[in-house]
Every structure is written in structure tokens, then in C-alpha cells.
């Protein structure tokens, strides 16, 4: 690749000349579904920092992915990666559904919900292990192993004979499920044609699917197979419901994990490969997809190599072996990439803060909600049947929040940030209105609206986060954001335990205000990926 002396013109790998200002714009591409419109799509290369070679390589990869278009592989990946969302949310809802009965059997009534607190430690650890690991050793290994590990440990959790064993295996199962969530969206996004980027947001509908599945299992097994909440003694024979929930849930996750491993057979993502100096593998990966689905792929290996050498700050196991020093250095380099410029630093900081706020507000709201409702004389909510029925309805309605978000982000003047602003303000209004709930019917209505609007924000945030992180440090950035959310969420249990007897109304109003504040953070986020291709 040659530069002219004045820097105004460069020769691309294909031999065509283009003005410097349009180096990151695409031409009209003939793809599987037809052609992209003649308006150009700009790569969001600013987030890549100071590595022009990598920016050019990712630009060519994006061109190739757009040229291949949407295939059956993408449809299957949407479902399989989406179930990773489902698995994580199932774990959280299941623990919220069964912990009282597990504590009642092993520890007695009125004990501190230790396992729930430990779940946050597991989620943080999972984000570190799988999130950082996916940028170090690749997306493929983490993606394929996480659900299988979660399901196996989940089966052991259901068979626990003591509280200590329950906590240990629950921790390991939650660790794998939470770590999986940090890589699912990145894997899907790095294969997705730009024309279908809205599916990154819509995929969060699987979060609601998982919550609904878990709520249905709890509704099916808990009411008729559990001890009474005010029982003084509780034996395993009369308290089998929580075990059934764990067994069924883990079997479902194991099935999807095996589908990932033996049917989908996902290859490493091309963007990870080029960001780690493995151009040939990236090219062969894209070529194999094009051949399998009879699609055109004009990319050549020479196109990639002529872009030049990328900066070598990645971890190569073949070259560095098990060097702890190099591993630590690479992790540090990845974190530095997230703060490589003023604009990128602003974006990363606002995202970390947003995740911390939504993590605290979301968790505290659902811990405090029924305490508040009970304190204000709501009728009909002391029945296990009605409680689990309403929870199932709420979660089912929540599925449509991400679907609505996927539609909203396609509106030109709304985009990602506008959708997050709408979701947070609407969620704040509904949370404040929820405080008027006094009946089971009102609980179902307000609960459904809350799930719907908060999931609009949450779905968009989940998709936006990896979109604005650079390729080389993408899952590291996602992991850091989720760590902020999990750590903040861990304080909800402490607040719930020590403050519920003082004034149950205050946390609900504070949570509503925090959710509303998220709209301010979204407004100041510097990137809007709606009209750009992610790198």
C-alpha cells in the first residue's frame, strides 16, 4: 500500500485510489440479499486508537461480511448466542425464586440470604475469567465452554445435601453463566452484516425469554412442592420444588451448550483473528462461510497483508507460552485501549457509570418492591400462586421491550442514545407509578410495564456497550462494565436486609430517580453507532 507525499491519496489493496477522507467508507456492495443502498457507511474506527493497520483490516473484514450478507448461520447464532442471555437471566430468577426454601431447609427461617450475595461474587468472577479471557485466548473457547460448565454445576447444585455444597456449586454455575453473558453479544456482533445491526439490540429479548422460562418453572414446582414460608422445620422430602427447578433448568442449558459445541461448531471471529495477527485464519473463515452459503466474497489474503502489521500488544500462547508477565501486560494494554483518547475515555467512563447505576437500581427495586407493596396493604399478593403467576406475566411482557428497542433504534433521529433516553425516562415514570399498587391485578399491570420499559433501556445498553469498544479490547470492556453492574447490584442485598424495616418507600423512589438519571448519561455519550459500522 502506497501513500502519496502530500497524504491526500492512498492506494487501497484492490488498487483503487480514494481520497484520504473516504478511506473508511464502503462502496456499493453486492450482498446476498441484494445491494446496500448507495449511501456510504462509515466504520467507527476512532475507537481503535492509534493503529491504522488494524483499522484498515477491520474495514476490509466489514466489507467482506456485508458482501456475504445474512445467512442461515447468522439466524442460528442469533438463537444460540441469545440463549446465553436466557441462561444468565434464568439463573438470577431461579435463585430469587428458591433461596427462601433452600435457606429454610438448610439454615432455618429468618436467615441472611448468603447465597444471593455470593451470586454477585460469582458473576463478577465470571466476567473477569470469561470477559478478559475472550480477548486473550479467543471468543470460541469461552463461548463453547461456558454453558456446558454452567449446566453441569447447576445439576450438582440441585443435588446438594448441605448449604455449603449448595453455595459452592451455585457459585460455579453462576460464574460460568455470568461469564457467558459477557461474550455472547460480542460474538454475534462480530459476525453480523451492518444492515442487520439492530439485531444486536433485539437479541436481548432472550433475556425476557429466560426470565419467563424460570418463572414458569418456579410457578410449576415451587407452590406444591415446598415447605410453608413460616414453617419451623423443613425436610428435603417435603421441599423438593427447588431441586426440580435446578434440574430442569440445568438440563435445558446443557442441551443448548451441546448444540453450540457439536452442531453450530462456531469458528473464531474474523475480527478477533486480525486483531491478533492471524490474517490467514480470518480470511479462510470468511471464505468458508461464503462457500457454504454460495455467497460472493471478494476479499483476498493479499488485501489484508498489504494493510501492514498491527501493533503487537496481544497475547499469543504459541509464542509466549504461559508467561504470567506477558499475560498481565496484555490485560493492562487492553484496559489502556479503553482510555486511549479523550473521546474514548469519556465513552468508557459514562458506560461504566451507567452499568453501575442500572445494576444498583434494578436489583434494589426488585428486592424492595414486595416489601413496599405489603407495607401499603396490597391485597392478594400473599399467595404463592398469585406471586409466581404475576412474575410469569411480567417476564413474558418484558420480552417485547428489546423488540421495541430494535425498532426504535432504526428511526434516524432516535438511534441508540435516543432509545436509551426513552427507555430510562419511561422506566422512571412507571416505577414511580408502581408505588400506587394495592391489588394483585395492579401488580401484574405495573410489573409488566416496568419490565417492558426498563428492558428497552437495558437491551439497548447491552448492544451499545460492545459496539463502541475497540475490537482488541471489546470483551474486556464489556467485562469491566458488567463488573460495575454486578458490584453495585451486590449492595442491593445489604440495603434490603438492613433498611427494609426502617422505611420501605425510600428505596423505590431512589431507584426511580436513578433510572431517570441514566437518560442524562445516555445524552452525553459521544458515539452514535446507528449510521456507522462497528469495528
TrEMBL record:
Membrane topology: Multi-pass membrane protein
Major place of residence: membrane
Keyword Hydrolase found: no
Keyword Transport belongs to the record: yes
Domain of life of the native organism: Eukaryota
Cellular compartment(s): Membrane
Domain Major facilitator superfamily (MFS) profile: 74-530
Keywords per UniProt: Membrane, Transmembrane, Transmembrane helix, Transport
Transmembrane intervals: 64-85, 114-134, 146-169, 204-222, 244-263, 350-373, 393-409, 421-442, 448-465, 477-499, 505-527
Protein name: DEKNAAC102879
Organism annotation: Brettanomyces naardenensis (Yeast)
Ranges annotated as biased composition (Basic and acidic residues): 1-19
Region Disordered, residue ranges: 1-29
Molecular function in Gene Ontology: transmembrane transporter activity
InterPro entries: MFS, MFS_dom, MFS_trans_sf
GO cellular component: membrane
Amino acid at each position: 500500500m502506497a501513500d502519496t507525499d502530500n497524504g491526500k491519496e492512498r492506494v487501497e489493496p484492490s488498487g483503487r485510489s480514494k481520497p484520504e477522507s473516504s478511506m473508511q467508507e464502503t462502496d456499493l456492495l453486492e450482498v446476498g440479499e441484494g445491494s446496500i443502498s448507495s449511501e456510504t457507511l462509515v466504520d467507527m474506527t476512532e475507537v481503535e486508537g492509534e493503529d491504522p493497520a488494524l483499522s484498515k483490516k477491520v474495514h476490509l473484514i466489514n466489507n467482506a461480511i456485508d458482501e456475504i450478507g445474512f445467512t442461515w448461520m447468522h439466524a442460528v447464532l442469533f438463537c444460540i448466542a441469545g440463549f446465553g442471555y436466557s441462561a444468565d437471566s434464568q439463573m438470577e430468577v431461579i435463585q430469587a425464586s428458591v433461596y427462601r426454601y433452600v435457606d429454610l431447609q438448610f439454615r432455618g427461617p429468618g436467615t441472611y440470604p448468603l447465597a444471593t450475595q455470593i451470586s454477585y461474587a460469582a458473576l463478577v468472577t465470571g466476567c473477569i475469567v470469561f470477559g478478559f479471557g475472550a480477548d486473550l485466548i479467543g471468543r470460541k473457547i469461552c463461548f463453547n465452554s461456558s454453558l456446558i460448565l454452567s449446566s453441569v454445576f447447576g445439576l450438582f447444585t440441585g443435588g446438594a445435601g448441605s448449604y455449603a455444597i449448595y453455595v459452592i456449586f451455585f457459585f460455579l454455575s453462576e460464574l460460568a453463566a455470568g461469564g457467558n453473558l459477557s461474550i455472547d453479544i460480542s460474538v454475534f456482533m462480530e459476525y453480523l452484516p451492518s444492515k442487520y445491526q439492530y439485531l444486536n439490540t433485539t437479541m436481548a429479548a432472550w433475556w425476557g425469554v429466560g426470565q419467563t422460562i424460570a418463572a414458569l418453572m418456579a410457578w410449576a414446582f415451587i407452590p406444591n412442592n415446598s415447605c410453608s414460608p413460616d414453617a419451623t422445620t423443613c425436610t428435603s422430602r417435603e421441599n423438593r420444588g427447588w431441586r426440580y427447578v435446578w434440574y430442569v433448568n440445568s438440563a435445558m442449558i446443557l442441551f443448548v451448550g451441546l448444540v453450540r459445541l457439536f452442531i453450530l461448531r462456531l469458528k473464531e471471529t474474523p475480527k478477533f483473528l486480525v486483531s491478533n495477527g492471524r490474517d490467514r485464519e480470518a480470511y479462510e473463515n470468511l471464505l468458508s462461510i461464503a462457500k457454504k452459503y454460495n455467497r460472493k466474497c471478494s476479499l483476498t489474503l493479499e488485501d489484508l497483508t498489504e494493510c501492514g502489521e498491527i501493533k503487537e500488544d496481544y497475547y499469543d500462547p504459541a509464542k509466549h507460552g504461559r508467561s504470567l508477565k506477558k499475560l498481565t501486560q496484555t490485560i493492562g494494554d487492553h484496559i489502556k485501549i479503553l482510555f486511549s483518547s479523550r473521546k474514548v475515555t469519556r465513552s468508557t467512563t459514562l458506560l461504566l457509570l451507567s452499568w453501575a447505576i442500572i445494576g444498583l437500581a434494578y436489583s434494589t427495586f426488585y428486592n424492595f418492591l414486595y416489601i413496599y407493596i405489603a407495607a401499603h396493604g396490597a391485597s392478594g399478593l400473599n399467595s404463592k400462586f398469585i406471586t409466581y403467576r404475576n412474575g410469569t406475566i411480567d417476564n413474558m411482557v418484558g420480552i417485547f421491550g428489546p423488540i421495541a428497542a430494535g425498532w426504535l433504534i432504526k428511526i434516524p433521529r432516535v438511534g441508540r442514545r435516543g432509545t436509551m433516553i426513552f427507555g430510562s425516562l419511561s422506566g422512571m415514570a412507571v416505577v414511580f407509578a408502581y408505588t400506587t399498587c394495592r391489588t394483585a391485578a395492579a401488580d401484574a399491570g405495573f410489573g409488566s410495564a416496568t419490565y417492558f420499559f426498563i428492558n428497552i433501556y437495558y437491551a439497548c445498553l447491552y448492544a451499545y456497550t460492545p459496539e463502541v469498544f475497540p475490537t482488541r479490547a471489546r470483551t474486556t470492556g464489556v467485562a469491566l462494565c458488567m463488573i460495575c453492574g454486578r458490584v453495585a447490584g451486590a449492595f442491593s442485598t445489604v440495603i434490603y436486609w438492613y433498611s427494609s424495616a426502617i422505611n420501605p418507600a425510600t428505596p423505590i423512589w431512589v431507584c426511580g430517580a436513578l433510572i431517570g438519571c441514566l437518560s442524562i448519561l445516555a445524552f452525553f455519550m459521544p458515539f452514535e453507532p446507528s449510521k456507522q459500522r462497528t469495528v
